[in-house]
């Protein structure tokens, strides 16, 4: 097996999980991150069985199970206007159905844990390293300050504003989305004091409505917060900007027809609320995010076979299948296995092309199903009171709508197996 010096651009979920995967195979890995540290802002991230099985293989089961914020709370899908439960799923169901658990973390905590694991295993992570140009033929990256990093392989995991993607594609590729999200973190102490909201502290709730959805999840692992994310049609916000403030009163008006519990959550999200213990003002902000999806990319790999793009940099997707982070983690495992087949540098174009061909069909399946959910009003059963139209998210990428039969992502595994034979 060829041992490589690898530069990974981006210290998000894609970059860090890939760093761990490649280090396990004996490669020397350096991660370059443009920010001065891990970004504390961001709602909960759900890791399904298809993601957890990979992280368990990386030897992270104990630490991640310990940091799992979902614990035993059931997942409840509710009708938007009256809160009627349309479908429920126990926290343990993923392990029962698929043999691997589902976990939930504050995004910051997951990144922090991946980074700690990577660093402990010898990965070098450097902050405030903004890549401005990429040499595709003689692989190297040039930073904003003029510093140059030469390497054997460049992995672009630098998100929707990816410099590596633009270098591989030959031009700037812009993401697009018709959806906006409002993100609010509320101290859990406020919910504990409110009898109409305290039940939410032991549940994971999703209110599904016409072109609108509300996700309310606990984040005890991040300053004991409760996260409310409200997604709707709109082009407000700036893509890739996570600290832009939204208008809370506008949000209240937009969701005036929702379940009284949702409306009450928006009422208590007041900056002037006081901490019950210190009587100091609590900081509650409403941030507006532009949800992003990448257009179809023909090329994930440079012609030289020395640069590859992964994660949101190449397949950012809308959140309606709940698989964005899982697909980033799957990328890491697939890339590491493909690179394991390279014996010489001349093998790199072949094995990276195989990685692209293995991953594309599966990624495109999730993107397509997410768009289908969006077109039918976020989720087919959102407007129906019939519990026959149940929804469940499958850990291996299966998404089932019982009335219409089963929609399988696993058909793509046939393609994966065939393509892996190419590398034998």
From TrEMBL:
Q: tRNA processing as a keyword? A: no
Q: Which InterPro entries match?
A: FAD-bd, FAD-dep_Monooxygenase_BioMet, FAD/NAD-bd_sf
Which keywords does the record carry?
FAD, Flavoprotein, Monooxygenase, Oxidoreductase
Residues of the FAD-binding domain: 4-364
Give coiled-coil spans as residue ranges: none
Q: Where is the composition biased (Basic and acidic residues)?
A: 412-424
* Pfam family, any one: FAD_binding_3
Q: Which GO terms describe its molecular function?
A: FAD binding; monooxygenase activity
Q: Where is this region: Disordered?
A: 389-424
Top-rank lineage group of the source organism: Eukaryota
The answer to whether the entry has keyword Oxidoreductase is yes
User: What is the similarity comment for this entry?
Assistant: Belongs to the paxM FAD-dependent monooxygenase family.
Q: What is this protein called?
A: Salicylate 1-monooxygenase
Say which species the protein is native to: Hyphodiscus hymeniophilus
